[in-house]
Design goal:
Length: 296
């Protein structure tokens, strides 16, 4: 991995240094979403720092969806595409783990099949890395289904922020489609979990060492991350998932007793805030803007 500019004297003042070299495997879990995975792959293809490969893990989709996915391996991309198939539906945690284990890059970048990236996502994260970094994320943005245009970035791009355990206890500071982490980490997603399984992993990584965030929106949702159908039940399942996360982390000694108690109190406050915001969003006559920034 080379993150330094070998010839700074040859650059003009204000000119960006060349993109750093980084060996990245992109892991995409997929389940019956071939209508959106093309957009996700296109956003990878225009990266200013291209990945080594893209590993798509199909979580037992319908037969016609699987047939479409297999065709991706024959398409012309500026990177290799590999499609792996799960024998039974096991959820996104297991799919991401399988892609992670099969990856050949030194770093893993996650992207959900219905999300997309800013063209400089991988480059700006690579520039932020230090030898001690285990994981880096970015902020995210909610766009409309039809909006694939990259959001303008501030100049200069703000410096990366180090996120300690306190940041992770207060809230989940990462979205999965913005995360880049080392392949050789000794932790994985907990299989069989469907809610807050990513949050659990981020805390486990934060307990091991340095976690960074590039505070600009480089990952894009094309739908409300809380969903639009079955919303009440989903929120409560997410709350139960967070509670389960803290219990597992306390059981495994990742969280101390004071950290666990603080996390529980903060979670209750977050639940109240989330429900109030949801109620306000559903008020009649409210007009939603096309873009909503979201912290990493």
């Amino acid at each position: 991995m080379s993150l330094t500019d070998p010839h700074p004297e040859t650059r003009r003042q204000g000119e960006e240094p060349p993109a750093p070299e980084l060996s990245v495997s992109v892991v995409i879990p997929h389940f019956n979403s071939t209508d959106t995975i093309g957009r996700a792959l296109e956003s990878i293809a225009v990266q200013t720092l291209l990945p080594l490969e893209v590993v798509v893990v199909d979580d037992c989709s319908a037969p016609e969806e699987r047939e479409t996915l297999r065709g991706l391996e024959e398409e012309s991309f500026p990177f290799r595409v590999r499609v792996l198939e799960q024998e039974r539906n096991q959820g996104p945690a297991a799919a991401r783990n399988r892609g992670w284990e099969a990856a050949e890059g030194e770093w893993i970048a996650f992207l959900d099949s219905d999300d997309s990236w800013h063209p400089q996502r991988l480059e700006l994260q690579a520039r932020a890395l230090t030898p001690a970094t285990l994981m880096a994320s970015t902020h995210s943005l909610v766009l409309s289904e039809d909006d694939a245009s990259p959001a303008p970035l501030p100049t200069p791009v703000p410096a990366p922020v180090r996120l300690g355990m306190g940041h992770h206890i207060v809230s989940n500071p990462h979205t999965t489609s913005s995360v880049l982490l080392r392949r050789d980490l000794p932790v994985r997603f907990t299989p069989g979990r469907f809610y807050a399984e990513d949050y659990e992993l981020w805390i486990r990584v934060a307990a091991l060492g340095d976690v960074l965030s590039v505070p600009v929106p480089l990952a894009y949702f094309h739908k409300d991350p809380f969903g639009t159908s079955g919303l009440s039940s989903r929120i409560w399942k997410m709350i139960a998932g967070e509670q389960r996360t803290f219990v597992l982390l306390r059981r495994d000694g990742v969280l101390s007793l004071p950290q666990f108690l603080a996390a529980e109190v903060i979670m209750v406050a977050r639940i109240a805030r989330r429900l109030v915001l949801r109620a306000a969003r559903d008020l009649p006559g409210r007009v939603a803007g096309p873009r909503r920034p979201r912290a990493s």
